[in-house]
User: Fold this.
Amino acid sequence: MTEPDRPLGAHVSLLGSPRGGKYPEGRPLLVTGSEERAIIDPSLVLIDRARGAPPADRVLNSHCHEDHVAGNHLYPAATWCLPEADLPGMLSLDGLMAIYGFEGPARDEFARVVVERFHFVPRADAQAYAGGDVFDLGGVTIRAIHAPGHTRGHTVFHIEPDDVLYLGDIDLSSFGPYYGDAWSSLEEFERTLAMVRGITARRYATFHHIGVLEDRDAFVDRLDRFAAVITRREAGLLDFLAESRSLDEIIAHRFVYRPGDAVPYADAVERRSMTQHLARLVLSGRVEETAPGHFRHAAA
Assistant:
């Protein structure tokens, strides 16, 4: 399967992914100004690219996750820029692993994977940017908009004059929002989705799956369906808690991944995700903790 690069304006191109942006791949964004060229989220697709990775003066990472930094090492002479809150993940392997928060064998296995499969290379001189910062490439600007939840530093980018909004891992997929890491936040993700819904652009681009949406109504529809996955997970959890369940039972039931999905870190993701749902359901009185680590849907 091949997927061509897609121009999104005179200065912006979304680079093709043989797997249609499906993880572990993703589509980088190439932005060219009169003075500088930037590549956003260089991914695995650049490594085997027949015509080679396109040259760039600057690497911008929307956040520090393995699939979004997998091609950084192809640009040793470029300036690497990451969100300030995620910068520790680029400074060392331990810093990256802290973002995920996996422990024991899952941590050790994933550390091996990010190095061997995703070519992770730490960079001591990586630079931090913050929400509101603007990168001027010469007649073309990239504005960073802090959009946390997926990670603490997750950022979306608005590129002008082409009026493209790059959404990073707000990927509008049927899987829904991912907030299963130690540095993820369910409630911040919900606030981010509400914020992004209010941004108008000519084109919307995602790293995974969808790729490009040109119609605002189509974007809003996709975004609302993406956000609705959170509500669906929470409703499923409440149904499951018709009787008292332990946290281990909740994890084993799987609300984020399907029961048959062979994901080595699935239990860690389910634990982090469902613990956040449980915390707010208990706080709101919709769920009661019947015994330490056991929960039930509270009677109306």
User: Anything to note?
Assistant: The radius of gyration is 20 Å. The CA atoms of residues 58 and 277 lie 38 Å apart. Helices lie at 88-91, 93-100, 104-116, 186-197, 216-240, 247-253, 266-284. The first strand starts at residue 6 and ends at 7.
